[in-house]
Amino acid sequence: MKLKLYIFSIILLSIATVSAQDVSFTSKVNKKKLGINERLRVDFEVNQDGDNFKRPDFKGFTIYSGPNQAVSRSWSNGKGTYSKTFSYILVPQKRGKITIEQAEITIKGEVYKSAPLEVTITAAVNKPKDGNDAAYIASEKIHLVAEVSKSRPYLNQAFTVVYKLYVSPETSVSNWRELDSPKFADFWSQNIDEKQFKIYDGEYQGEPYRYVILRRTVLYPQKTGKLTIEPLSLSVSVAVPTNRRDIFGRFLTQNANITVAAKSRTVDVRPLPLDGKPDDFTGAVGEFDFTVKTDKKSLDASEAFQLSVEAKGNGNLKLFDLPKPNLPSKLEVYEPENADRVRTNLSGMSGLKRSTYTVVPAYKGKYPIPAISFSYFNPKTERYERKTSDEIVIEVMNGPVDLNAEKTTTTTDNTNKQQVIAADNQFAYIKSTPNLQSVSKKQFFKSGLFWALLGGPFLLIPIAMIVRKKRQAYTSDVQGNRIRKADKLARKFLSEAKKNLGSQKEFYIAMERALHNYLKAKLNIQTSDMSKDRITRLLKEREVDESTNIEFIGLLESCEFARYTPSNTVAMQQDYDKAVRVISTMDKQL
To answer: What are phi and psi of 570, to 5 degrees?
Structure first.
C-alpha cells in the first residue's frame, strides 16, 4: 500500500513538473538553401500537448507528404520531458527567397505561434545516387535536354534553344508541369508555342528513347562574352518498373514524382567587328532590303504627302531604329507613324519595319529629298553592308512663293552678271527737243494733299507697329500654328475621304488621318499618344457628352477594323456622315 502511494506521488510530481514548464513552440527546416529539384523537411515542435494545430499555407511549395506526427516522452533525474512534432515534406515550386509563415497551436486555452522561416531556392543541383530509390530509378529513365543551335553567335544574331524530354520505352509519363523557367536576362527572347505535342523516336546516349519537344525559344543576345542559359526544371509524374511480379508474371510498376532539369548551357557571344563599322550603324543584324518612297511627287502647297522609310528582311527587326530623313526646312514634318509587321519563327524575326512621315510643303517650288543610307551587319558574309535609296524630288506646283528664297536667288544672280558695254546709239530713244506744256498754277503747298502726304507716314507708324506685333505673336505661337494646321489638315483629309467613297483602303486612311489631326487640333496631343483610353479621358475632361465620346471612339475602331475586314459603299457613307456629325457636335461642345 505504501509502495502504491509512493509511485502515485512520483507520477503526480512528474505531471506537475511537465505542466510547470514554459511552453515552447518552435519550427525548423533540414536546410536553409536547396535546389528546386530537392525536397525540404519542415518540423514544428511543441513541448506540451495541445489542440487545434494549424499549419501555414506553404506558399511557393507543394506538400509532398505530411503532416507526420511523432510524440516523445522521457525521464531524467526525476524530471519528465515531452515533445510533439508535426513534420512535412515540401517540394519547391519556384526559385528565390520563400518565407514559411507561422504555425499555430492552442495550449490550455492560449494560442501559441511558431517563428517564420526563410529558405532560399536555387537552380537545380546534382542529387546523390541511390539505386534502391524509385525516384532515382525514374530519374535514370527520364532526361530533359536543352539543344542550342549556335554556340558562338554574334551580338543580336538569332539562335534557338529547343527543350526535349527523353523517356525510356519501359517508362510511362502521366503528367508534367514547369517548376522553374529560364529568365533569359541577357537575351531578347520569344517562345514558339507548340500547338500539340508529338512523340518522336530517337536516341539518348546511344540507347533507344522516345522524346517530345516541350518548348522552342528564339534568343537574340544583348551582351557579349560567355552568357549562361538557365536550366528549365519540370515536375514529372512517372511510373517505373520494379523487380517484383504479379501473379501472372508481369513486372509491377511504381509511381513516383520526380524533378528533372536541363543542364545549364553557355554560349560565347561575339562582338560585332569594329573594322568597317559605319558611323550611322544603329545595330541592325541580318539580311535586309531598304526602300524610301512617297505616295506623291507633285502636289499643291498645304497638301500633305506620305514619306515611307522601310527595312524588310530577316534579322533583329524589333531591336534597331530606322534612319531618319533629312528634309528641307521649308517642309513641315510630323512625327512618324510606325507600322511594323514582324513574325518570329525558328529562324528568327522576319517581316518589315516601316516609319511613315506626313509632310506638308508651305511654298511653291521643287524640294529634293536627299538619298537615305541604311547600314547593317550580315552574319553570313561577316561584314557590314549598306543600302542607299535614290534622291526624290517633290514638285509643289501651286501655292505662295517664298520671298526669302527669291531674295537670295536675286542676290546670287546679281553677283554673276557680266559688265555691259554701252553702244554709241544707246540713248537714241531720248528726244533732244522735248515738247513741254505748262501746268496748272494751282498752289500745292499747304493744300489738303500736301498735309495728307506729310502726315500720312506718321499715322502709319503706330499701325505698322501694331501689325508687326500681331504678326510676331502669330509667328511665335508655334503651338497655335500647329493646331491651326492640324485643323486645316483634318478638314482636308475629311474632304479627301469623301472623294474616295467606294475605295475602302484610301477612304479609311483619309478618315483616320482626319480624326487624328482633329484630335491634334482640339486636344493638343500627338499621334503617338492617341490611345483610346487617353482620348476618352481627355474628352470627358473637356465635358464632351458620353454618347458623342463613344461615337468618336467607334469611328476610330471602324478605321482600324477596315484594314482587316471588307466594307461596302453604304457602310463607308454611313461612317462619313457620322464623322461629319460627330466633329460638328464636338466643335460646339469644345
So the answer is: -65, -45
Q: Which residues contact 270 (CB under 8 A, 6 or more apart)?
A: 152, 153, 154, 155, 224
Contacts with 296 (C-beta within 8 Å, 6 or more apart), sequence order: 303, 305, 306, 394
C-alpha cell at 101: 509563415
Q: Structurally, what CATH architecture does the domain formed by 286-396 represent?
A: Sandwich (2.60)
Cα–Cα distance between 435 and 437 in angstroms, integer? 7
Question: Residues in the chain, how many?
Answer: 590
Stated pTM of the model: 0.50
Domain 478-589 has CATH 3.30.70: no
Please give the DSSP secondary-structure letter assigned to residue 154: B
Residue 56 and residue 117: Cα distance in Å, rounded? 11
Does the fold of domain 286-396 match that of domain 2-122?
yes
Q: What is the pLDDT of residues 162-176, one digit of tens each?
A: 999 999 887 888 788
Condensed to tens digits (0 to 9), the pLDDT of residues 127-144 reads 655 545 667 777 778 899
What is the residue extent of each domain of the chain? 2-122, 134-269, 286-396, 478-589
Range 2-122: architecture per CATH: Sandwich (2.60)
Residue with cell 534553344: 161
The confidence score (pLDDT) of residue 435 equals 64
Residues 144, 149, 154, CA angle at the centre, nearest 5°?
A: 135
> With bands split at pLDDT 50, 70 and 90, how would you rate the model's confidence at 205?
confident
| CA–CA gap between residue 101 and residue 97 (Å, rounded) | 13
Rounded distance, CA 275 to CA 269, Å?
Answer: 18
Indicate the helix (H) or strand (E) that contains 269: strand 265-269
DSSP 8-state symbol, 228: E
Cβ-based burial of 337 (10 A; exposed 0-12, middle 13-18, buried ≥19): middle
Element (DSSP H or E) covering residue 195: none
- Distances in Å between the alpha carbon of 30 and those of 43, 124, 129, 309, 402? 8, 18, 19, 63, 85
Residue 18 scores a pLDDT above 50: no
